[in-house]
Predict the 3D structure of the following.
Amino acid sequence: GGDNYTNTIFNDGCGTPITAGSPPYSACYTPEQPLSSFVNQPLKGAWTLLVEVGGGSTSLMLLRRGKPNRSGVYALGAVRLRQVLDLRRHTHELQVALLKRSIANVVEEIAVSMPLERVTQVVAIGGDVRLAAAQIMEQEDNDGVHELPSEKFLAFCDDVERLDDDGLVNRFRLPVVDAETLLPALLVYRALLAQT
């Protein structure tokens, strides 16, 4: 895992957003959501998994008692998955099946090098999961940090899975480009959460 990421640093003070970079990533980048949003947020367990699903990749950092233990970047980006699997040419049901299988294969590889079964808390970062949190918490504002029970998040993912892109646009008033990435991103978060 972590192809194309060598000596990569994520820091709010870096000048280049990770979304503006291109592989191989070997510099300092700002993450899609500021890491500073987690300042003074208590970590609840001995093992915490930080997850950010972006367009091209998913970044993971495993913390043990708040200190980095392992990290990696994996080819599980929402846009990348749609492109590699050529989802536009398939029915919604087949899209979901292809996404789940592809994600499961990579998550199985991740579990070989990261003890995901030890994780007691998952901290998810990114626009797609912020939208999910805002919907679950029934708040207009999707900024900030929200604590969600895993069963509510999983139920939301199930609801999203039943909707095609047009259904997502209509239900959540999303631009098409955001609707296209919502399901792949949430399926990645859900697959990782299921391993914990």
